[in-house]
User: Fold this.
Amino acid sequence: MKKVLALVIAGMIGFGAPAAFAADAAVKTVAAIHQEKTELSGKAVQVSGKVVKVNNGIMGRNFVHVRDGSGDQATNNLIVTSKDTAAVGDEVVVTGNVKLDRDFGSGYMYPLLVEDATIAKK
Assistant:
């Protein structure tokens, strides 16, 4: 009985969900996510890079900026929203869903975000 209860509880809290999510995510560069944003909208992506800016606790989420050395001035930065956070300088792997034209109100409009992401240090 205890074993069954443990399995039910594990299932209820999403035990194993991030691994399944990561397996379904398309591995991309920051520049590729910008270039393919229309096709990737609503889909899971995974990107590795370095954290260059962090704003925690804004509207119930953390905003983390990631760069991987790809792209130009307009396409070299990816903004990620997450319950997870990281420090500037951390090398991370981000997995989340591409969202376009996200309007939070009060002038906070983002043409491209990776939302509901997991952020894991390398």
User: Anything to note?
Assistant: Strands lie at 26-27, 44-58, 61-67, 78-82, 91-103, 109-121. Helices lie at 2-12, 17-24, 30-35, 37-40.
